[in-house]
Design a protein that fits this description.
There is one protein chain. The chain has one domain (about 10-85). About 30% of the residues lie in helices and about 20% in strands. The protein has helices at about 35-50, 55, 70-75; strands spanning about 10-15, 25-30, 80-85. It starts with 8 loop residues before the first strand and ends in a 9-residue tail after the last strand. The relative contact order is 0.24.
């Protein structure tokens, strides 16, 4: 029922080690521009070709690292639209 109430986004999560004071970071890209939409589409194709469409629909990529390298390559030239840094920043809720 939200219609066009928000822009879809893709996020990357980094969990900082003890040496970084356990500070975590989330970066996000709104999928609104041509580059962002194209990168998301290509990333989806990569995942579906190896794992099938249910893997993408069920957000299987959110809790494992298999396709992170492909995402980093495909989104490399896409402008980041959000950065959150802090000790209480949480990543995807898995399991």
């Amino acid at each position: 029922m939200c219609g066009n109430a928000y822009d879809p986004s893709v996020y990357a999560y980094w969990e900082g080690p003890r040496a970084a004071g356990f500070i975590n970071m989330v970066t996000g890209v709104e999928l609104v521009g041509d580059k962002a939409i194209a990168a998301a589409g290509e990333w989806q194709q990569v995942m579906e070709s190896q794992r099938g469409s249910d893997y993408v629909i069920d957000l299987g990529f959110a809790c494992e690292y298999t396709f992170d390298e492909a995402a980093a390559r495909l989104f490399r030239d896409v402008r980041i639209s959000r950065v959150i840094i802090g000790g209480g920043v949480e990543g995807p809720q898995c399991g």
